[in-house]
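In response to the reviewer comment on reproducibility (Comment 2.3), we provide here a single inverse folding case reported in full, input and output, so that an independent group could reproduce the run without further information from us. The structure tokens appear first.
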């Protein structure tokens, strides 16, 4: 019986504390709306993206993960720059292959300081 009385008193204290905190907390009104965290794009607009730029890239968290539009924009930018680099690498590789395939003109053993050989005249 003593245990039952103790549990009833403890339950009454908890209910009273919760009721008091809810009633006294309502005087300040609802919490103001917080502006959503906006993505500050750290990718440089004036130069190509490098590894350090990608490593420092952080997206703000929203209730369901990341803001999809921010992630899509960053991935689109990175994809465009990778495509440009791939095209540039392909151009340079084809130019190198063309330069290696072109036979070099044989170097003459005579220099401009050497005397020319006499011509045979009939």
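Designed residues, in position order:
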């Amino acid at each position: 019986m003593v245990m039952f009385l103790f549990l009833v008193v403890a339950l009454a204290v908890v209910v009273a504390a919760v009721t008091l905190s809810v009633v006294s907390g309502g005087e300040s009104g609802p919490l103001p709306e917080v502006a959503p965290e906006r993505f500050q794009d750290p990718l440089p607009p004036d130069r190509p993206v490098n590894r350090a730029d990608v490593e420092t890239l952080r997206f703000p968290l929203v209730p369901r993960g990341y803001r999809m539009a921010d992630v899509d924009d960053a991935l689109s930018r990175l994809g465009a720059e990778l495509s440009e680099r791939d095209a540039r690498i392909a151009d340079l590789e084809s130019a190198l292959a063309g330069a290696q395939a072109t036979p070099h003109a044989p170097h003459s053993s005579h220099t401009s300081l050497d005397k020319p050989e006499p011509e045979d005249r009939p």
